[in-house]
Amino acid sequence: MMSSADKMPTKIRSLLKSIPKVELGFFPTPLQRLHKLSEKYNVDLYMKRDDISGPGFGGNKIRKLEYIIAEALDEECDYVFTYGGIQSNHCRQLAASCRIFDLEPVLYLIGEEEPEEYRGNLHLDKLLDAEVNIVTAGAKEVDNISEKADKLAQERMKELRTEGHRCYDCPAGGFNAAGCLGFIEAFEELMEQTDEQDIELDYLAHANGTGGTYTGLEIGRKLLSSEIKILPFSVGTLSEDFEEKVSRMSKSVADKLDIDEEDVMIDAEEINVETRYSGPDYGVPYTASEEAMKELAREEGIFLGPTYTSKAMAGVLDRIKNGEIEEGSTVLFWHTGGTPAVFAGKDFVGDIYGP
Ligand SMILES: Cc1ncc(COP(=O)(O)O)c(C=O)c1O
């Protein structure tokens, strides 16, 4: 069988070379061994440091945005719209990336109420002078708050278009075919690093939100015929049609790359998102996520984000402790960022001062 090394170095990059892309990130991001935690838990634990991937405090969206911003420029847009929660990491990274290319970022941030103070990501959105629209839900509207944000955005786009502007509509989390390409490429980047450093990974764990990171990594894995088990960890309620959405997205990616669907199609049945560690709700911390945040800071000097990575890390550590990830395994945790939310206040971060 062909090893991933035989297929390297450019199988994926050659597929991507005709697709527009801008340079935003500091790639390759470091692949770091977590020595103390590896010893403590009797595994080989590595971290892929996308928390320091690039501008605006970095994060996993920078990889997606290299393709999304290029698509917006290719379509001659001058405004980029996007959506997220009030502490959205995606929105902050998109706003910072837009600034580099003289695009105007317009954000629709969904929150329970107008915040009294701008903190964490929201504070940075304001510093970036993004157009910040906070969409709050009345009691009756809670179920269709995203629709409300969409409707408001459509009205704003119409207004801008009549003034002669062109708007790029980026979905929440950068979950479109262009965005997924960034993580297909990321998988190849990781394989190059593990080959160079002679590391054989058993597991690749990451926090899951909209599914773009997972879609990209899984397609990359398929394209390079890797045997690594990818473990996506949910951080809130997983939408009922999540698997179908990812499956459809993998087809869109095949169309975009003009390759055989068979090579990259992700069947809904093969997707297995870990949902046991998502805590009470999206954006709400709980004891295990607070513990993971403290442990990584105090053992390794690494800050996890409260919304995504601390929950995923809580899951990884628990699965190591309960043997679902076997002793002696080689595990990669993809640090997808989200660290500015550490400054978002106790509601988002939880109790992280105590022992
Ligand atoms: C820090 C962090 N990790 C993980 C994710 C999940 O990425 P995806 O939406 O691609 O599943 C996000 C998305 O917003 C994020 O901000």
Topology pattern, helix = H, strand = E: HHEHEHEHEHEHEHEHEHHHHEH
- Rg value: 20 Å
Q: Helical proportion?
A: 40-55%
| First-to-last CA distance | 50 Å
Number of domains: 2
Bound molecules: pyridoxal-5'-phosphate
Strands, total number:
9
Query: In one word, what is the shape?
Result: globular
**Protein structure class:** alpha/beta
CATH class of the largest domain: Alpha Beta
Return the average pLDDT rounded to an integer: 94
Uncertain spans: 1-9
CATH architecture grouping of the largest domain: 3-Layer(aba) Sandwich
Kindly estimate the percentage of residues that lie in beta strands according to DSSP. 5-15%
Q: What's the tally of helices?
A: 14
Task: Summarize the main sheet.
Answer: 5 strands, mixed
Q: Strand order across the biggest sheet?
A: 1-2-9-7-8
CATH topology of the largest domain: Rossmann fold
Helix and strand layout, with pairings?
Layout: H1 4-7, H2 11-16, E1 31-33, H3 35-41, E2 44-49, H4 61-74, E3 79-85, H5 89-100, E4 104-111, H6 120-127, E5 131-136, H7 145-162, E6 167-169, H8 177-196, E7 203-208, H9 212-223, E8 229-234, H10 242-257, H11 261-264, H12 287-300, H13 309-321, E9 330-335, H14 346-349
Parallel strand pairs: 2-9, 3-4, 3-6, 4-5, 7-8, 7-9
Antiparallel strand pairs: 1-2
Helix pairs in contact: 4-5, 4-8, 5-6, 8-9, 8-10, 9-10, 12-13
Bound molecules: pyridoxal-5'-phosphate.
